[in-house]
Amino acid sequence: VFIIAGFFLIWAGYFAKWKWVRNYKFRLIHLAMMGFVGFEAVFSLECPLTWAEYRLLTLAGLKHGNAPFIAGFVDEILFYNFPIWLFNTIYAGFTILLVATWFIVRPEKKAKKGNISLSK
User: Fold this and answer.
1) Whole-prediction pTM value?
2) For residue 92, which of 47, 46, 34, 11 has the smallest C-alpha distance?
3) Which of 10, 24, 44, 51 could form a disulfide with 107 if both were Cys (CB 3.0 to 4.6 A apart)?
4) Would you say 30 and 6 are in contact if contact means Cβ atoms under 8 Å apart?
5) Do residues 44 and 88 touch, judged by C-beta distance below 8 A?
6) What is the pLDDT of residues 60-81, one digit of tens each?
């Protein structure tokens, strides 16, 4: 939710001229989170949260599905079983889109204490 909502809020803030969407720490965390998901997608790695979910279900003696959490969640909503490569393609594409957003809607670092900046 943070990644998707953050993306749309960054662009809404760009057009509405909201200063907080250029916050460097927020943008760095946002990009890093999606970068992690994109890395997993490109290398077909299982999400650590999915692994933990499966491990806990196994320890509890419960059966789990074959789809990762998000894919399984979307599957339940849409009642359609998308192949995992489709999710990986979407994740990788969205990562590229977020990297482009970083350069289009540039984050701003705050001026160091003691420095006076007259330009705004």
Assistant:
1) 0.66
2) 34
3) 24
4) yes
5) yes
6) 877 766 666 676 777 676 656 6
